[in-house]
Amino acid sequence: GTGTNNDLYINQAIVFIEDAIQYRSINHRVDSKSLWLYRWYYSRTCQWLLSLTITIILALAFIEKPSSLTVTSDVRYRLPAWNPPCGLTESIELLCFLVFMADVSVKSYLIGWEEFWKNRWLMAYILTLIVSLTDWIVSLSFFCTENVRIRRILRPFFLLQNSSMMKKTLKSINSTLPEMASVVLLLAVHLSLFTMFAMLLFARTKDGQQDKEWVGYFRNLPDSLTSLLVLLTTANNPDVMIPAYSKNRAYSVFFILFTVLGNLFLMNLLTAIIYNQFRGYLLKSVQSSLFRRRLGIRAAFEVLSSLKETPANAQQSYVSVGALLQVLQKVEMDSRCKQAITRSLKMCSCDQLSAAQFQKLFEELDKDAIKQHPPSPEYQSHFMQKMQFAFGHPYFGYLGNVVALANIVSICVVLVMDADKQPSERDDFFLGAINCFFILYYLLEMLLKIVALGLKRYLSYPSNRFDGLLTVILLVLEIATFAVYGFPHPGWRPEFMGLLSLWDMVRLVNMLIVFRFLRIIPNMKFMALVVTTLLDLVKNLRAFAGILVVVFYAFAITGIMLFKGAVVPLGNTRATSTRLLFCHFRVQLVLYLKEKCDFVALFGHFQAEVICCLLHLLSVNLICRWAKIYFVAWWLISSVIWVNLFVALLLENFIHKWDRRCHREPLSDIEYQRTVELMFRDVLEEPTEEELMEKLHQHPHLQLCR
Amino acid sequence: GTGTNNDLYINQAIVFIEDAIQYRSINHRVDSKSLWLYRWYYSRTCQWLLSLTITIILALAFIEKPSSLTVTSDVRYRLPAWNPPCGLTESIELLCFLVFMADVSVKSYLIGWEEFWKNRWLMAYILTLIVSLTDWIVSLSFFCTENVRIRRILRPFFLLQNSSMMKKTLKSINSTLPEMASVVLLLAVHLSLFTMFAMLLFARTKDGQQDKEWVGYFRNLPDSLTSLLVLLTTANNPDVMIPAYSKNRAYSVFFILFTVLGNLFLMNLLTAIIYNQFRGYLLKSVQSSLFRRRLGIRAAFEVLSSLKETPANAQQSYVSVGALLQVLQKVEMDSRCKQAITRSLKMCSCDQLSAAQFQKLFEELDKDAIKQHPPSPEYQSHFMQKMQFAFGHPYFGYLGNVVALANIVSICVVLVMDADKQPSERDDFFLGAINCFFILYYLLEMLLKIVALGLKRYLSYPSNRFDGLLTVILLVLEIATFAVYGFPHPGWRPEFMGLLSLWDMVRLVNMLIVFRFLRIIPNMKFMALVVTTLLDLVKNLRAFAGILVVVFYAFAITGIMLFKGAVVPLGNTRATSTRLLFCHFRVQLVLYLKEKCDFVALFGHFQAEVICCLLHLLSVNLICRWAKIYFVAWWLISSVIWVNLFVALLLENFIHKWDRRCHREPLSDIEYQRTVELMFRDVLEEPTEEELMEKLHQHPHLQLCR
A423, B221: Cβ pair inside 8 Å? Predict the structure, then answer.
């Protein structure tokens, strides 16, 4: 009947508007039951459950067998890690797989069969699930004794497929690959030519004294190649050159030429290429988000205009205000936006909305959220008004900053004075006393500010929330310290007790004060710009970080599988090889990595230099060939490519920010909640009516009347 | 009289046109004698003499006393360096100073007194000369025994002031300084906060076993600061973290946070800021060059139009063609341009030239020089024609590339086979034989190509010149080898003799073949793009490189003065300090640097990593506080700032090239000789008539009639 039809249209409009708000694609089934399923699937609970499942399956690696989560990483002191019994992690895994299977079925059903066959990500999802389940069955039938577990390497895929931003970023990286490959090829040519050259230059001679260079670095082809590859990472930079240089200074020309060409030119060319490819990346992604939003709104308009209650008009379609109000009530959206839209609907005297008016109503979604701070309390008493003026004044805030600086300086002085004293000689009275004094001041400052501004207004500023939280923590810690050790007096020396003694806590208090000092940043103009750029960057970087996590996870698991059993006990290695003394700590690190490849170690060392250090070890032949390939691949991906991507993104963000800085007038009291979309608003192109309608007519499930 | 006046105008026009060609300023004296002096000063001989003087005074450091130019840099084997007698280098210096004094007087006279007082560079030049001469007199009166020689640090100034490009670049760098300073300040805040944090975190405990971290890196404030500064350069990256990490994994969070914030964010922000400032740098510099050129041409037009022979015209001024032809004959310029201008003058039927026509004539200067290769010889014989077709065909060139590749591969195979053999076991017959074969092929290839293309056409291609030169060198070396050792036979083993034996030369031959392989690059599309970008970059980088040389020179001389007498004999240091074993080679390097600070070592190690390695040593307290400050300053300037400038320039160049690549059609046979000016031609703005005339009226010496 007409009623059911109308209900369907209303529901469709609700879902389309929600799609628009979330920048989702509208290409899904639109019948009543599917719509219900769709809303349920994208409900917060459901998505939260899915994220939780992904977190759980990824976190499993920390407690699974070859990994170890212990406090110390030192093999000598470490207690044996807890080994979960066979079947425990496996049953958790099975639960996760069941959730993923439900997820993939719902997703496939919702987009429909035709779309399903075009969607490679869904196919890969199903394939991954099949492989994982097979591997799981194999694992259980061997009672968890088998070594190769493919499903672990596949796990990060579940994280990847769940984020549309990550998929988009991956596509973008993918399109840069051909040009990156060219530069990498050029690097390879550079490397191989210079390797040959080096082998001819540093050939073995009769005089054993003279060919240190040959013995150390260019003994044979793989050695030479490794030496120069490591030189490209600049890890063995002076070492590799010294024997030849001390023989004849002219040899340095070879190394300088190699480094300048390889490091300065080719490596930076990679940065240039990646930046060039990513220049438009942010803009393009924001542009496509805008298109999705406009499309969702337009689709909602189209379905609402086919409602029977609307008088059929051949020329132009209209939507009744009543229907829209009905839809708005049921849509899940930010309450501020909803109120604003309802208000403008009521202010508009018309009864019917054209497409343009409809679109215009929803532009509220794109607008800056202007944050209004609640007003200060109005006091009757003259004294209170004076207090309010005094302690609500910015100068009071500056005084607080000066006190925080004084606190930092005094801690610094104490640290310098105590630096060389034995712990038994040290007198902690002074540190305790100044802590006590400053914490009292902070408490007073907080209370006075609350009185002056009122609690609500005080809490509406993020800097105050940060301050207040730290002050409360400091106070609690201080009171606890006094309760245990009594008040500070000369010769006061709180003793250690338990895992985290209260004295540790007092030190913690001092550290927190260091952080409190950061509140001066917004007061300095350039620093504020830099910090906001960095914060923006962090928002935009989430997709990149996700991909990095995926790559790391896969690498860590591969590392565990590759280097299991390749462990040489630490003592033996040191005894047999005199070379180890050369860089003892680094060797220890590599041994740890080989032994456990644990996550903290991997995450902790993701920057270029650690990998360089590992590669440096390769040059002294400590690890086998597999390890070489593994580490070179790791270096290329995590250090060369990822760091360059990061630099490209930073350049893009900073230059946009910098260009805009001159245009925008800083508004003193109103804080804008800026999003990436807003940053680009003045350069974005609005999609045309034709583009929107063409896209709508291509919708696989929605049959528009006209 | 009118004749003298006319001669003066003609001479002025000549000089203005020459100024326009060389992009020089026209603000100099314009009377007859000054013009003669000006042309003499900017003549090739004079400028060449000036450059020679600058080179000599800079090169003096290589033979002066504390420096040493020996073959080996190893203290044990090195012969004592030659010490020039007192007075030798000093008299050379005096000669140089005399030339500089002449230079500064001529320059000051030519721009006139008024301009002189505004020109800070000239003032600084005179000041430098006065200080240098005073220092020279002091030096001689002490019979060269004094240690502090200020004039040596001032020497690079002479290089700086002689290049207008370098002065312009320096100005540009100077304008970036405030923003760089902000980031450096941010880095300093970051560093000091984390230092305090680290000192609180890694305090001394009672358990001596547990505070390795404290002993090694955070013993007191300077130590902690150095440790973290070095961590910022990533030189001690895993080492500094290992003791804490093996105690408790959670400590790694501190180091990761520090590195991510400092290295990844703040350091790259510096790149972003510098790139942002330099984005318009190239364009702006080319734009101002264009303005100078147009201004010179316009000035020439104005003086020529005041020639008495021209009929006075109130409305518009004209220049007679005859006068221009007279000027053109005497102007020193590229003969191709001169011919082209004369030709178009003759083709133009008019007798008088307006300003626009005059300007248009000289646009020939901005045009691409189209290089026409001379034609191939035309042979009568049918056989010769066939040969010409076969060996002039590109496929013959490809065959040559394949043969070069085969040569490389065969050398590679021999190297791999000989890698582990003792020199006494090795048989050089095979290498000798393949060398012989391939060199014969290269000779044949060269001769056939010369026959097919004719000698002139053959030599007109740079790739052929490169090929031909290498082939001739290879041939000479091979003949010399045969003359000494006879033809290769099994068991052939040329012996060593003298400094560079002939057998060394055979190895050199093989190295040259490696270079010959590079001729394949222009055949690959993307590689050609990359290589041309790099070559362009080298052109644009000359000014930067010059500034780098200036900075290095000053640093090297300061280093010599600072670390003279601070040398610890190598043996002793090794015996007393067990830490030296830790990175023995690096210590050696630092000792060399401290001992000699010689140029090769400095130039050889200008990349980030070596300085990092030096800073790494700082963290183990090997060098005194002065050295710390010295090296930190060096690291900041040469590694952080210069490398970032380089990256900025590379990005700028590459992105321009890349954008243009799509627009331009590659022309097969015509090679453009591209200059920076041409690269930007389509974005440059032509200066307007008003701007030019305003500038002309501001000329301090030229009184225009109107």
Answer: no
Question: Helix, strand, or coil here: B351?
Answer: coil
Task: Return the higher-pLDDT residue of B323 and A130.
Answer: A130
Reported as a single tens digit per residue, the pLDDT across B523-548 is 666 677 777 777 777 777 777 788 88
So what's the pLDDT on residue B235?
A: 61
Q: What is the mean pLDDT of residues A551-579?
A: 53
Distance, in Å, from the CA atom of B628 to the CA atom of B615, rounded to the nearest integer, reads: 8
Same fold for the pair B175-368+677-705 and B382-523: no
CB distance B549 to B159 below 8 Å: yes
pTM assigned to the model = 0.73
CA–CA separation, A10 vs B169, rounded Å?
66
Compute the distance between CA of residue A159 and CA of residue A547 in angstroms, rounded to an integer. Answer: 9
CATH number listed for the domain at residues B382-523: 1.20.120
Q: Which fold has domain B175-368+677-705?
A: Helix Hairpins (1.10.287)
DSSP structure class, residue A601: H
Which residue in chain B has the smallest CA separation from A656? B276
**β pairing state of A319-320 and A352-353:** antiparallel
A79 CB within 8 Å of a chain B CB: no
Residue-wise over A295-312: b if at least 16 C-beta within 10 A, else e? bbbbbbbbbbbbbeeeee
Instruction: Determine the average pLDDT of the residues in B193-204.
Output: 79
Query: How far apart are alpha carbons A401 and A516 in whole angstroms?
Result: 9
Closest approach of chain A CAs to the CA of B248, in angstroms? Answer: 4
pLDDT on residue B600: 37
Tell me the C-alpha distance between A529 and A68, whole Å.
42
As beta bridge partners, residue A371 has A671
H or E stretch including A490?
A: none
Tokens 């034995």, residue located: A422
Query: What pLDDT sits at residue B51?
Result: 92
Distance CA B621, CA B608 (A): 20
CA nearest B507 in A: which residue? A200
Tell me how far apart the alpha carbons of residues A236 and A217 are, in angstroms, rounded to a whole number: 10
Interface test with B, best of A495, A517, A605 (most B CBs within 10 A): A605
Environment class of residue B535 by beta-carbon count within 10 Å: exposed (0-12), middle (13-18) or buried (19+)? exposed
Residues 6+ apart with CB under 8 A from A647: A271, A274, A275, B268, B271
Comparing CA positions, the residue from B588, B567, B578 lying closest to residue B620 is B578
SS3 B497: coil
**Which of B241, B276, B534 faces A654 most closely, judged by CB atoms?**
B276
Separation of CA B70 from chain center: 25
Distances (CA, A) of B85 to B91, B174, B307: 11, 41, 61
Phi, psi of A238 (to 5 degrees): -80, -35
Candidate from A72, A186, A252 with C-beta closest to B246: A72
Q: Are A464 and A402 in contact (CB under 8 A)?
A: no
CB-nearest to A419 from B221, B589, B647 is B221
Ramachandran sector of residue B426 (left: φ over 0; alpha: ψ -120 to 50; beta: rest): beta
The answer to whether B26 touches B16, Cβ cutoff 8 Å, is yes
> Rounded distance, CA A14 to CA A331, Å?
6
Distance (Å, whole) CA B294 – CA A694: 54
What is the spatial distance between Cα A359 and Cα A357, in angstroms, rounded to a whole number?
5
Nearest to B472 by CA among B433, B443, B434: B443
**Alpha-carbon distance B100 to B93, whole Å?**
10
ipTM score assigned to the predicted complex: 0.73
For chain B, the domains span 43-162, 175-368+677-705, 382-523, 535-569+590-673
Give the mean model confidence (pLDDT) for residues B215-234.
Answer: 75
Structure token pair of residue A406: 């004084």
For the ranges B183-192, B418-427, B663-672, the lowest mean pLDDT is seen at B663-672
Q: Is A248 in Cβ contact with B650 (below 8 Å)?
A: no
